[in-house]
Description:
- With 319 residues, the chain is mostly beta strands.
- Helix content is 7%, strand content 32%.
- It is elongated, with a radius of gyration of 23 Å.
- It starts with a helix and ends in a 24-residue tail after the last strand.
Amino acid sequence: MKKITRFLGLALVGSIALLLPVKAHASCSGAIVFGSYYTQVTNTSNGPSLRSNFWAFDASAPTAVPTSGNPALGSGNDNGAITETDQWLRVLPPLGTVLTGDWGGSAFDGCPDTTLNVANQRMVLSFSDVDGLGNPTFAVACVQRLPAAANQFDYDTVGAAIALVPLPKAVISNTVRTGSEANITVQSPNFGTGFYTDGSSGCTAATVIPQYDVYKQQIARNAPADNTHDTSAVWTLVGTANVGSPLSFTTTCTTTNCDVYVAVSPRYLNNFSTGEAATPGSPIRLGLNSTKLQAGPVLADTPGKGKKIGNLGGTKSQQ
């Protein structure tokens, strides 16, 4: 059954490829096909909320320039200005959502062949979306190049459906009161549940997701939190840390009582993120907000008539 399904997938992909418009130029001198035909991308509607990127790198020097991807359009070896919709991620009934593309047949930025050693060539795909409840999800997959194969970057080799899973929620591991401010320590998130690999050297979570970003939402006391999970004017980047290490920052409430939330997002190899590099201005998608913290001169709400003060000028922020 698996062989029949794969054959059907190849046939359908081939027929659709014939219907696609011919690009004005090719990124590579010859065909370098990538995709998957029976390992589908799942837990996504493949709709407007989906954001994705792909890029190539050399396992021996993954951040070397110009052999790696670059989110700047026109630079690096990546999907450039080409989005996934109707380009390299397609819904093929009855198979579902499958990957199919060709570095040599689309106007992507660069080419994996700019790396010095074909055996060291790797390709990464990243996805972010929202589930039916509007909660943020993600998945990342990395495979090596198989130059003798028809599908040279074969994502079926990860051995499972590339399923989008929840982005980690920010976790506060410690808070320390400093005057009217709070010094907040954010625990390093674990992105392993959304990472897929063929097991080749260089295709490790530590290589592909080396860092994470921390954003804060600092708002007026008891104001409603922004729960859109997209970077916007209300979210401020407070720092980037290596995965496995915590990140600390201090609030800036000064003389105003305020509430603070934090959220995290992966920072992938070569500076890609959960934003879509092909769409300039695309917001970065964040994980779920942390629990609420308070800062400012008074840590608890000022009580009304007949109420007691819960925590005035205490030593620890209230969550």
